Amino acid sequence: MDFDEWDQRFKNDLRDLAKEKEYNELKKRPVPATVLTRLLYTSILLTQIENGSRISEAVEAVLSFKNNNERIQKIRARKRKKLSKGKDVDALIKIPSAVKKQYLDLDYSFDKVLNGVKMFAMRYYKINTHSLRYSWIAKMGREGVPTNLISKAIRHTNIQTIENYTAEDEADIIKMNFIK
Known about the structure:
7 helices; single chain; 180 residues; 2 strands; globular; mainly alpha; 63% helix
């Protein structure tokens, strides 16, 4: 699936899960933990794909949104290597409008959510969460955003990596258009 298909699937799943949660609340029944967990994890995956962020950044942003209700979250960019000569770098993450605070009713630790959303993505959607980041990068490349800006937007130090992602996407498009 490409960016738009994943984005729409996450939005549809959020809508369906929210309806199930509302139905249970209306009938004065406890909302199953599985519904609440899926709402949380799907909210995080939607946030990740719409920002091109690392999954850990999306988790931090959504958990912060739960606490402060601000749609724009300023978080520390999480990397294996530090940017800007050893200094931490901030990243802005926008929480999608489809994500509602009432979807985030669980009090899990950062590590539990991070590990859980990775397993959820693999089991339920059959994807590695990092592939959502690649999808965002490829979409920006298709829309003509220069690789140096894509790299800055996602706090990536190696422009060559971004060029490789966008070139692979372009090659796949050419191949699909060539085969009749």
